[in-house]
Automatic annotation (TrEMBL):
Family of this protein: Belongs to the purine/pyrimidine phosphoribosyltransferase family.
GO molecular function: adenine binding; adenine phosphoribosyltransferase activity; AMP binding
Upper lineage: Bacteria, Pseudomonadati, Pseudomonadota, Alphaproteobacteria, Sphingomonadales
Native source organism of the sequence: Polymorphobacter multimanifer
HAMAP family referenced in this protein's UniProt entry, alphabetically: Aden_phosphoribosyltr (MF_00004)
Domain of life, source organism: Bacteria
Protein name according to UniProt: Adenine phosphoribosyltransferase
């Protein structure tokens, strides 16, 4: 496995949140200072040229996004759940497996033409990442790349992002989930 040393720091919790699911718990990687630092270094190495901004998806995407923004010397833009940001916001509603959700950003957070790297801890079905991409693009941002610590390729999210013109990198992948 790619980045097997980091994958060894991911705890698997069987049957959570429901029977048959193998939950990949990133918090054990976050608890390991050297492992977390190495994950940021390796994510940064995958970025050909630093973006203007990194958009971190709530909540664990904030952790990876902020650390990566610091490493790359760019700003961090927060994509938050509905009604969590003060001031004027713009948002997008999107479908989940069982229902709907909404993510928002400050209306003035991105300028037309800025390059934005989308970052989260994990890509599964891709619904939130696709919504984030659409929200950023609707504000005029160029979203050509998304980076994740974990990919669950059998759930198809990375493939869905690629089909929408977004290059996807992930430090590690767990098949069969």
């Amino acid at each position: 496995m790619k980045n097997a040393d980091l994958a060894a720091l991911i705890r698997t919790i069987p049957d959570y949140p429901k029977p048959g699911i193998q939950f990949r718990d990133i918090t054990t990687l976050l608890l390991d200072g050297p492992g977390f630092a190495l994950s940021i270094e390796r994510m940064a190495a995958e970025i050909a040229s630093p973006p203007d901004l990194i958009a971190g998806i709530e909540a664990r995407g904030f952790l990876f996004g902020a650390a990566l923004a610091h490493r790359l010397g760019c700003g961090i833009l927060l994509l938050r759940k509905q009604n969590k940001l003060p001031g004027r916001v713009t948002g997008i509603n999107y479908a989940l497996e069982y229902g709907h959700d909404r993510i928002e950003m400050h209306a003035d957070a991105v300028q037309p033409g800025q390059s934005v790297l989308l970052v989260d801890d994990l890509i599964a079905t891709g619904g939130t990442a696709l919504a984030g991409t659409e929200l950023l693009r609707s504000a005029g941002a160029k979203v050509a790349h998304a980076a994740f610590a974990i990919d669950l390729p059998d759930l198809g999210g990375a493939a869905r992002l690629r089909a929408n013109g977004v290059d996807v990198t992930a430090l590690m992948a767990f098949e069969g989930d």
